[in-house]
């Protein structure tokens, strides 16, 4: 089908793949990008927060062109029981800056734009084409790919594997293992459409300002998981995700949990009267540093979700994906410009770049968090939210009980549930994993 | 709360179904494994169901291609998972 040989083939047109394709093409490399969806973005799902800095490093003036929804001026963290939420809320007019730091986006629209940008730099993008196999030479070096279109191998010096969390190619080629059930979360999401004035009045916004709600607590029924509500221009993304290993032993369905979350007394009024236009599901890599596979080999690099590069604690995924795609591309460009072969050793420059970046530093910092949250799920997601809610109600309800007795009752409840040693242990464990 | 009908959710989505070529297949079994049985609840598109003989069957038309069943059931040999052919399957307008 394609006779010419490419400098690089990029598999997938998500955040990581587009960042890699754009960066390589803009440095003059001959890039082919293959996408199995109808168009770039049509298979991609994300809650939808974009961190400006990581895209700015790739496309400095993206704000003028990219399809952005709202810039975020407020973040709410909600600790939920079935009838209450206790909030930590941060809002600042400083976020109304000339170059805002965070935006909400709609992935299939954003990815389509990002891909067009890569094409404008010279990348060749072919959609509706599923790569079925990585092709290696007799020495095991990856030299190209096979697709489900007619024709033989398409050859390239290096293949950038940006196939996402559920990547089949890398695992089938034995380059890495499939993710384990305790290392991925299943998230489901709905798009709720509302008039933009309604969104602005309900969420206390002016113009293109946006709000994010991240919610944890009894909504995940004792599983490690979180819910979210993100404001877009004329829609609200609402979703919930839990670890697959927790789900596997539970009697809950993901869509049942989402319905319960939507009907929570704190969430329901925010969605009232909306029209739902899409229901999506996606896996999120949650294994952190310890789940990162081998990142380079002879003739290949792996980037983004396929490499488990996701910071679950800060809910950052797409910016790690974009950064890893860019750094892989820069490493490939370096090797190419030295006219050296794309061997594992030469390509390990990408690993070095990643180690020096926030990507590996952040993931290393939280390397113990996934395990902690997983093993302590019942405490962190059921016991503490309930205790906190009781303490808040105790504090706020005025009923003639002397304050000292109310305080003692709140403390007693914590001690009864977890004992002093448990409370101390939980605090130490959390602090240690955080450091 | 009444049981949630996942079919109503899928009805909002766009699909291009590759008729007669399902991308996920369940291997023949007499009694489903725990993980395969778990998929009857866990599949976010409700693609998996238990039949009257106690075996698990799949109708992959509404599949959201998340890969959860692959994570749980591929290594044990319960299922065979492939991507749909290029262009087929779920088409997210928003994603």
TrEMBL record, chain A:
It comes from the Bacteria. Residues 369-435 form the FixC-like C-terminal domain. Residues 7-63 form the FAD dependent oxidoreductase domain. Keywords: FAD, Flavoprotein, Oxidoreductase. Its cofactor is FAD. Could be required for the formation of a functional nitrogenase Fe protein. Probably accepts electrons from FixA/FixB and reduces a quinone. Part of an electron transfer system. PANTHER family: ELECTRON TRANSFER FLAVOPROTEIN-QUINONE OXIDOREDUCTASE YDIS-RELATED. This is Protein FixC. It comes from Methylocystis heyeri.
UniProtKB/TrEMBL annotation, chain B:
Gene3D superfamilies: 3.30.70.20. Pfam families: Fer4_ETF_QO. The keyword Iron-sulfur applies. Coiled coil: none annotated. The keyword Iron applies. One of its GO terms (molecular function) is iron ion binding. Keywords: Electron transport, Iron, Iron-sulfur, Metal-binding, Nitrogen fixation, Transport. Residues 54-84 form the 4Fe-4S ferredoxin-type domain. Could be a 3Fe-4S cluster-containing protein. To ferredoxins from P.putida and C.tartarivorum, ferredoxin I from A.vinelandii, ferredoxin II from D.desulfuricans. This is Ferredoxin-like protein. It comes from Methylocystis heyeri.
